[in-house]
Amino acid sequence: MKGKVTGIGGVFFKCEDPEAQKQWYKEQLGFPVDEWGASFRWVDKESNKEGLTQWSTFSNETGHFLPSPKDFMFNYRVENMEALLAQLKEAGVEQVGEMEEYEYGKFAWVMDPEGNKIEFWEPIDGVL
Q: What is the pLDDT of residue 127?
């Protein structure tokens, strides 16, 4: 089975004051913020399973986006992380670090041709 991206998992960006940004988005736009940012929950029309898309602010000093110098990072939901990483390696795509596993899913990172770090997430929530 081939690996593939199935949707947007999250949007992350750097800012001067992450807490103030979260509060502004909460107060002005109604974002449901918590300590991690905001989780937008949705239900997959075909499977009727719940999923989420994450929105988070990071300090300008974060190392989480390295080696990319950019102020943003996109997270893509994926199906079959190991297969996707093998396909990308075969195509010469640079992987950043090793795949990590948590109780809510697997994560891995690659660089696109213009130096943007991309985060992949194979969630446990069942919606791919």
A: 54
Q: Where are the domains of the chain?
A: 4-95
User: Tokens 């199906």 belong to which residue?
Assistant: 79
Output the CA–CA distances (angstroms, integers) from residue 36 to 57, 60, 89, 111, 114, in the order listed.
8, 16, 31, 24, 28
Task: Return the sign of the alpha-carbon dihedral for residues 20, 12, 27, 34.
Answer: negative
d(CA 77, CA 63): 22
Q: Which residues contact 39 (CB under 8 A, 6 or more apart)?
A: 32, 52, 53, 54, 55
User: Any residues with CB less than 8 A from the CB of 34 and at least 6 apart, and which?
Assistant: none
How far, in Å, CA of 34 to CA of 46, rounded?
29
Tell me the DSSP string of 19-44: HHHHHHHHHHH---EETTEEEEEEE-
Question: Looking at residue 49, what is its pLDDT?
Answer: 83
Positions in the chain whose pLDDT score sits under 70 = 126-128
Q: What is the architecture of the domain spanning 4-95?
A: Roll (3.10)
**Integer distance in angstroms from the first to the last C-alpha of the chain?**
14
